[in-house]
């Protein structure tokens, strides 16, 4: 069953430099209980996509297309309905928990707050009890409910954010770089927690990261974004290990697999920067950084087409069945 | 590594900080380490393990409370003049290029700053151009008048590195040189460090929490846990055949293409977090979180794990050294083995 679906989503920011397209026609689906990873560099539009789901974008953003949550278009919802959907239908775990938590309020209160707002019948005492149970579920002692955010470590704060996201039993969780700032071992702990919760509660998960290797470890499917478009999508592990778009290949190579002789003393890289959204190149937007571009890439913009079972790529070279890495 | 020439050495290094209530944090608790010209050494560990304090102490920004730091065989002296002379040889590369560069200074001024601090006025434009071109910004003159905001993230980090290279140091100390950079730029900067080593013999100590970085560019790696190096050796050996339980756990949780590829079959996710440096456990400091102790595998040496402190690992490039009682009981003393 489809839980979340983006249909031809466009987001354009109006600013002093004119209209900047951040998301340029994205179609994506997440089924209930499925995990989808979205990978890309800063500025590729992945966070805009996440914010669009809960309509958290600034006023300067023009949004068109559809975002269906359980078949209902989020973009057409009235504010009352939208408020009900936030936390109960879908919730977000942001990166940098220190900034997302209230520094002068105890952890337990902050977790209980959405419960009290969304469930009129719940008493404060019952909400506090549930907050403690949630803390326990994310691996923190219930006594932590009385702590302030600064008394916790980075990993513990990120667990609190996850507990908050779970508070109202949402069907969908969006995790935007939720483990990026964490150490390897703490990241592994939090990723394992997220995976367990997805299995246990059957929630859908959209996980956003610049690290394709992390997505491949947690997600069923992965989509790679570049300059506001999806350029490749497929089983997460396949996209990471056998990319069918030169950009996904470069992104995957940036995080080498230890023990891979090809990566030893050979850091993968990609020179240059993503294109300025105000001045996108003609043809394929990745062409100026692409090592395998052919003549056609400068003239036409490639569509996302099938390049294998359950895999699509927006690359003419991959669509011809040619290798995307030199 | 028999020659001491231009080698940065730490012996029995300790750095302690007083905390409120009379407690003492042992941030660096006995470290031997060598970094020679022409080699890249990765110092890896989690936040709070003491790796940044160790780097700051090696640069003379922090005073050791015990042990010695020496460069080229000469112990570090802390007078302003001596430190200034030292920093011409050993330069720091900062982590976040956007924060390290003054937005109102041109690239030229940013790079020339080091020369001005050191009172080197001879052929300033020539030396700035040389540093920029060594950092891969060519032709250098084209970058002289650019401001940081006009550059890409990768170019900004190259400017920071050029600022370190302008004094023609023999070693760089880089603290998380790519942590704040985007995935694709990361490779660009790591390639630069590798090229500086291969083509110009520049050595580097790279502080990182990222083992993949070590696999990409480092010759040797030292794994730090709670103020001590617990495993040290050539990257190939330490990362593909890790022996300390902590290193094994770190390696096991990294993403992999297939189970067969990892030296540790099952991911070992350690519970809890790094203890406080003011409460370092006696005996083996890793014991409270050790998976071998928890599983009973270490039962035969448990009395040592609880009661016997481990020796400080030596700085030798070879062999692969491990500070673990269980490993010692299985493999013998690594120092005797070779």
Task: Describe the protein's architecture and organization.
The complex is a heterodimer of chains A (326) and B (338). With 326 residues, chain A is of the alpha/beta class. The longest helix of chain A has 18 residues, at 184-201. Chain A has helices at 46-53, 79-88, 97-100, 107-118, 124-137, 154-166, 184-201, 212-218, 236-241, 246-253, 316-319; strands at 2-15, 18-31, 35-39, 61-69, 72-73, 90-93, 172-176, 204-209, 221-226, 229-235, 305-308, 311-313. In chain A, helix 4 packs parallel to helix 6 (154-166), helix 5 (124-137) crosses helix 6 and helix 6 (154-166) packs parallel to helix 7 (184-201). Chain A is globular and about 65 Å long. In chain A, 32% of the residues lie in helices and 24% in strands. In chain A, 50% of the residues are buried. The model of chain B is unreliable at 334-338 (pLDDT under 50). Chains A and B meet through helix 6, helix 7, helix 8 and helix 10 of A and helix 7, helix 8, helix 9 and helix 10 of B.
Estimate the global geometry of chain B from the Cα principal axes. Answer: globular
**Could you say which structural class the secondary elements and strand pairing of chain B correspond to?**
alpha/beta
Q: What is the level 1 CATH name of the domain at 2-89 and 168-248 in chain A?
A: Alpha Beta
Distance between the termini of chain B: 16 Å
Q: Could you state the order of secondary-structure elements of chain B as H and E?
A: EEEHEEHEHHHHEHEHEEHHHHEHH
Strand order of the largest sheet of chain B: 6-7-8-3-9-10-11
GO molecular function (chain B): ATP binding; ATP hydrolysis activity
Protein name (chain B): ABC transporter ATP-binding protein
Family (chain B): Belongs to the ABC transporter superfamily.
Organism (chain B): Glycomyces luteolus
